[in-house]
Amino acid sequence: MVMNSSVTEFILFGLTQDAGKQKAIFAVFLMFYLATLLGNFLIVVTIKTSRTLGSPMYFFLFYLSFADACFSTTTAPRLIVDALSQKKTISYNECMTQVFAAHFFGCMEIFVLILMAFDRYVAICKPLRYTTIMSRQVCCVLVILSWVGSCIHSSAQLFLVLRLPFCGPNVIDHYFCDLQPLLKLACMDTYAINLLVVSNSGAICMVSFIILLISYVVILYSLRNHSAEGRRKALSTCTSHFIVVVLFFGPCIFIYTRPATTFPIDKMVAVFYTIGTPLLNPLIYTLRNAEVKNAMKKLW
Fold first, then answer.
1. All structural domains of the chain with their residue ranges
2. Where are the transmembrane segments (predicted)?
3. Cβ distance 200 to 161 under 8 Å?
4. Global pTM?
5. What's the sign of the alpha-carbon dihedral 259, 263, 267, 268?
6. Sign of the dihedral defined by the CA atoms of residues 277, 279, 282, 287, in that order
7. Which residues pair with 171 in a beta bridge?
């Protein structure tokens, strides 16, 4: 798999080199990661076993929770293990695999969030045609397209990284392998490749965020014709979705829509969308959703 590179492994700098802080990082992020897995696993099992959560919204929430758990797993375990490890090395092949997996599940999360917004748009703006438009077959096709789109995106990112020659320093100033830190280590002019990265990841983030914002504006505008109870229920659902969108897209846009420059705060911003958002999503969707809470009580 190694191409145009004399480097066979990288050293991950991590969040800090301070031994005391590393122990705290191990404890805190181990707790966060286990809570993320537990929260998303509970949602997946609840939706899978509940007869009341059969609507398209929960069908998409199932895949969002699955993507969250996988997305967190691409980065969190490495950060946790490296916090107590003296040798923070990652092989070239493992690094490339991490790049692919992180972008695959991150992109999957973006597409599923768009599908959830589309589902709410149809439910609120086209209520009479909802069951026809959002049939089970249509939902399955949309999810498959999301998987395919995520695979195309992450394959393109991986292709760009594989073209980079690494012949000098191999210390990645990050806690996982990502494009911007790797571009800094390449022994070639990376300006053109960085433009491609921004036009790929950056464009997906920005365009998706704009689409989601427009969809929620349209939804809010259409709610003026609904009853007070209908408005309250729709607003509660849409507010949950919108909180998740802002929490996820804010950090992503900050990281992927700018030129090839890195800031010290980048790692903490990355922590927020790779570990923080997958942890918060189950809380947001369960605490603000009576149907999910009732289904969980029945499951227990």
1. 9-299
2. 24-45, 57-80, 100-118, 138-160, 201-223, 235-256, 268-287
3. no
4. 0.90
5. negative
6. negative
7. 11
